[in-house]
Design brief:
Elements (H helix, E strand, L loop, with lengths): L3 H21 L2 E6 L7 H6 L1 H6 L2 E6 L3 H10 L4 E5 H9 L4 E9 L4 E6 L14 E4 L4 H12 L8 E4 L2 H10 L4 E5 L2 H6 L2 E6 H6 L5 E7 H6 L1 H20 L1 H6 L1 H11 L3 H10 L5 H7 L2 H16 L17 H5 L2
Helix pairs in contact: 5-16
Length: 328
């Protein structure tokens, strides 16, 4: 029979082992959206879990604004948002950092006018109902496009709807146009006319990006997790860049992306071809002064439009290339 002191040591050892197991089993909640990009492949395959040695709870969001709220509350540690929601959140001082660029948005986001709406040209948008998720990249792009066309945004009835709500409103005939991304975009294009894409808006001086951000407190406590997450993402993007045609021709790749995003095969293919994906070196260079300047410019535009109340003197603290550099 074990002596009391020995039993105490055994119980203490068991408790420590259980505590260690609980720590290893901690769940990291990561928010994602339905944007189409190569990082959906490792997400579907469980590669992030394998690389980080952690359990991950993937939580799907319909808009950047909703994901920002979850990051602010601490419900989400890492999130996939657009550069416009980042600019708005950083302007409010939310302690997050951009550490990876999923893509530079091109034709995968677009403004579409519904057939029969009476909208044949941009100027016809005046007085019409145009839906867009507020504080999203498409919201920013819509405002930038209206400015480019010299259309007063106040004369357009801009409605705040999430992608799923946009699809439903479109089918009911409740809206005249919408600026959105896939899978909703593919459904709209089937019954409408594209007035502008985000690639065109970028050429007009207002580029947008899909990015990965992390809560600064999480990054400080778990830098290795963030570095490994970045490596898995960059490897997936690298596989696409090495041979885009082969990547798209792989039916398994397209199916996995489709399952996570809800997009049909043609929309997945269009989304991959419609965005620009950046290599490791390109990201390391972008996530320095160029991206910081882009965020500042976006924030200034949003303030001029009355969407944010104040600006940061420096947006540098909200961007880092540290994890791209350590993702080896």
């Amino acid at each position: 029979m074990a002596k009391p002191r020995l039993l105490s040591r055994l119980f203490l050892s068991a408790a420590l082992l259980l505590a260690g197991a609980a720590s290893a089993a901690d769940i990291v909640t990561i928010g994602y959206q339905t944007g189409i990009d190569p990082t959906k492949i490792p997400q579907a395959d469980g590669a992030y879990e394998k690389a980080t040695g952690s359990r991950i709870h993937w939580r799907k969001f319909e808009s950047g604004a909703e994901l920002i709220a979850a990051l602010a509350s601490g419900d989400v540690a890492i999130g996939n948002i657009g550069s416009s929601p980042l600019a708005a959140a950083a302007s409010r001082g939310l302690a997050i950092q951009t550490f990876l660029v999923a893509d530079e948005i091109g034709s995968a986001e677009a403004l579409v006018a519904r057939s029969g709406s009476g909208i044949a040209k941009p100027q016809d948008l005046v007085g019409k109902k145009v839906a867009v998720p507020f504080v999203s990249t498409t919201h920013y792009s819509l405002l930038a496009a209206l400015k480019h066309w010299n259309i007063d945004a106040a004369k357009v009835n801009v409605l705040n709807l999430r992608p799923g709500e946009i699809t439903a409103a479109w089918q009911r005939g409740d809206i005249d146009a919408a600026y959105v991304w896939d899978p909703a975009l593919g459904k709209l294009k089937a019954g409408g006319k594209v007035l502008a894409t985000s690639r065109q808006v970028a050429e007009w001086g207002a580029p947008t990006y899909d990015i990965w951000v992390v809560r600064q407190d999480f990054a400080a406590k778990h830098p290795e997790f963030v570095s490994r997450f970045a490596k898995v993402s960059l490897d997936a993007i690298g596989q696409y860049l090495a041979n885009p045609q082969a990547f798209i021709a792989n039916a398994d790749n397209i199916a996995k992306i489709g399952r996570l995003t809800g997009a049909a095969v043609p929309d997945v293919v269009a989304g991959l071809r419609g965005n620009r994906f950046l290599s490791r070196d390109e990201q390391a260079a972008l996530l320095q002064s160029p991206f910081v300047q882009a965020v500042g410019k976006t924030a200034a535009f949003l303030k001029a439009q009355g969407k944010v109340d104040a600006l940061q003197a420096d947006y540098g603290p909200y961007v880092t290339n540290r994890f791209v550099k350590t993702a080896r």
